[in-house]
From TrEMBL:
It is found in: Cell membrane; Membrane. GO terms for cellular component: ATP-binding cassette (ABC) transporter complex. Keywords: Membrane, Transmembrane, Transmembrane helix, Transport. This is Zinc transport system permease protein. It is a multi-pass membrane protein. The chain crosses the membrane at residues 53-77, 89-112, 132-153, 165-185, 191-208, 215-240, 246-266.
Amino acid sequence: MLEALAYPFMQKALLSVVLVSIACGVVGALVVVNRMTFLAGGVAHAGYGGVGLAFFAGWPVMITATLFAVGAAVLAAMITLRDRERLDVAVGLLWAGGMAFGVLLIDLTPGYNVDLMSYLFGSILAVGNDVLWTMAVSVGALVAIVIVFYRPLLAISVDREFARVRGLPVAAVHILLVATVALAVMTAVPAIGLILVIALLTIPAYLAEMTARSLAMLMMTAVLWALVFSLAGLALAYAFDLTSGAVIVASAVVTLALAEGVRFGVRRLRKGTMDRVPASAGP
């Protein structure tokens, strides 16, 4: 693995891993805290419509898909703004509509045979300079948004009604949050693909939630977890010639299962200890 670092494609893959980890860790914390996993999945699949549009029109794929996903996310945010019960309608519109739109446009693209696997499941070892620059700009924008709007984002994450009473523009912050999720999703697509990206958004943040005591700490810990999974997945994918996105997500899932198993065991042990205390406390 170490000798592979001399190759330019591996250096680009490592940079991509760092960028994706930052994007998924920071925004994933907001997704988990705001219970937006379902919506994030819909946004990810809506991005496929942007991929189809890019091939059909001959536009840059990543830029077009990102703008398309952000636009679709804003539309979904506006639909659910007044009535949170319509979330399933909005996600269904994004999920099925985006995929169908993308497939139709790719079918209508004349004389072009598109390999869709890299967009669905990622291909981090094949990331080029143009995609890497797009990812870097997207991550820079994400970090800037979170830093500038940290307090409003924290306020609506904790209590939206209280934030509204305090005079915060909850609707605008909600739309910004959903658009930020879309930007993070599309940033991670080259590494793990549209289908698997939701796992890297949620699993690191869920693991970080076990120990973090603040939103900022949750974000930083989630970034570290995402980086661990991404580096492990990259190493295993290179060593065994496997699909990088699938290996990254598989490593995250296995770690989550182990963590939940340990936590369950600790809880049972504590419960058993507490149950034995009254019996041994008699005269």
